[in-house]
Design goal:
The structure holds two protein chains of two kinds.
Chain A (H helix, E strand, L loop, with lengths): L5 H9 L8 H9 L1 H18 L11 H10 L6 H7 L5 H19 L27 H24 L6 H27 L4 H24 L4
Helix pairs in contact in A: 1-3, 4-6, 6-8, 6-9, 7-9, 8-9
Chain B lengths: L6 H4 L13 H12 L3 H23 L2 H18 L9 H23 L23 H8 L3 H12 L4 H8 L3 H19 L3
Helix pairs in contact in B: 2-3, 3-4, 3-5, 3-7, 4-5, 6-9, 7-9, 8-9
Classes of the chains: A mainly alpha, B mainly alpha.
The complex binds zinc ion (ZN).
């Protein structure tokens, strides 16, 4: 007779009740070494799984990030909230990125040295969009400026990443990941609502954060 | 004959983050103080339960950075919803269910938006990760390499003790699909763990 199905073997191994196993299957198991071995192998795996730790300590930075987020549990103005109310809470990414910025900037206080060779264009790290440039064309040219500056700064950091502590590099990379996710989110929101000035402002602000973060990171590099 | 413990026994267990036994009254007191805005009480709740939440998020996401972010999201959500916790179930069960929901919904969102970087074999080197002597690094590594659906069902069923009906409900899939994912996960794990 045929071997038992995968479901029957797993149900038997699990001691599950609805194993769909009739007397003919029981006879088969009694005689078939293959099926019995298969059940034993599934059980042996289950034993290993059962021994896995149910608790693993999270990284130390996790609580400070939560603490900062719950302390500022309403960081966005109502207007912005209504824009994003149908969407996942993008601000939570930003809040987390803001915390990381604080972490990085507190390290900056020990070494506040502007790097002369990483000049940031004054137009880039400027202000939120005004009424005049709240349209896609203007935004896209600003976006390009932000992107170029960010790329340039990142190249500067990346070229000398071994001169920064692994913690700092990890913090910067994680912050960038968070901010990039927030940028992506705002760009998607803007794509479905291109004339929304609030979202355009948010997008610009997120780019500014990214540039700001990278600027701080370059300031952490030792002077050569 | 072994039987994996169900959520009632496995999920509701308090976190063994320290040697002291967490009494129910202690947790109830912390929850009521935290829901009144007491940050210190909430931090204590975090200390007691973070390991359990992080382990779940780590295995569901397969990525330490993502797991830390998910853990943050879970506790922020927990803080926002503490008032709605009525004490009908154990706080640890309530929080665990919240964590599963946050992890699953975030994952659904993420996979639509950008490809998650598969962090194979990241677990053993994770900083700040405290593992017991019994930890099975080969098994943990093999779990991270499972396809997403199979891994999710496997973690919820075999590690966390959920039933297929609950998983199907949480994931919005059929019970049969949940079973198929589980069998596939077990098959793949055995393939990568057993000597050929
Ligand atoms: Zn057989």
């Amino acid at each position: 007779m045929k071997h038992l199905t995968e479901e029957q073997l797993n149900d038997l191994a699990d001691d599950a009740i609805p194993a769909r196993v009739g007397p003919e299957h029981e006879r088969h198991i009694a005689e078939c070494l293959t099926c019995r071995a298969e059940i034993a192998r599934i059980r042996s795996l289950a034993k290993r799984i059962g021994a896995l730790p149910l608790s693993i300590q999270p990284p130390a930075e996790t609580w400070p990030m939560i603490s900062a987020r719950i302390r500022n549990s309403a960081p966005i103005p109502d207007q912005e909230r209504s824009v994003l109310s149908r969407r996942p809470p993008a601000w939570s990414w930003l809040a987390a990125a803001a915390v990381l910025l604080v972490v990085v900037s507190s390290a900056v206080t020990t070494l506040v040295v502007r790097r002369p060779d990483v000049e940031v264009p004054a137009t880039v790290a400027s202000r939120p969009a005004t009424d005049n440039d709240r349209n896609l064309a203007a935004l896209s040219s600003r976006e390009e400026g932000f992107r170029n500056t960010a790329d340039e700064l990142w190249a500067a950091v990346n070229a000398r990443r071994d001169q920064l502590s692994p913690e700092t590099i990890a913090t910067v990379e994680r912050s960038i990941k968070l901010i990039d996710a927030a940028i992506l989110e705002a760009r998607e929101a803007l794509a479905s609502d291109p004339n929304n000035a609030v979202i355009a402002d948010m997008l610009a602000a997120r780019y500014e954060r990214k540039v700001d973060l990278l600027k701080r990171a370059t300031e952490l590099l030792p002077q050569s | 004959m072994f039987k994996l413990p169900g959520p009632a026994s496995r999920v509701a267990q308090p976190v063994k983050s320290n040697s002291s036994v967490l009494s129910a009254s202690n947790v109830t007191d912390l929850v009521s103080r935290a829901s009144a805005g007491d940050n210190a009480a909430f931090e204590e709740l975090y200390r007691q339960h973070a390991g359990r939440v992080y382990a779940l998020c780590l295995r569901l996401s397969g990525d330490t950075g993502r797991a830390s972010e998910l853990t943050q999201d879970v506790f922020v959500r927990c803080w926002e919803r503490l008032e709605s916790f009525r004490g009908e179930s154990a706080f640890s069960s309530w929080l665990h269910r919240l964590a599963v929901n946050v992890a699953l919904s975030t994952h659904r969102r993420d996979s639509r938006r950008w490809r998650r970087v598969q962090a194979v074999a990241i677990l053993p080197d994770a900083p700040g990760t405290v593992r017991s002597d019994s930890s099975d690094i080969d098994l943990e590594k093999a779990i991270t390499t499972l396809p997403t659906g199979a891994r999710t069902v496997f973690v919820l069923h075999d590690v966390e003790g959920y039933k297929h009906e609950e998983i199907a409900n949480l994931m919005g899939i059929a019970v049969g699909t949940s079973k198929a994912h589980l069998f596939r996960a077990r098959r793949l794990l055995r393939k990568s763990l057993e000597p050929q």
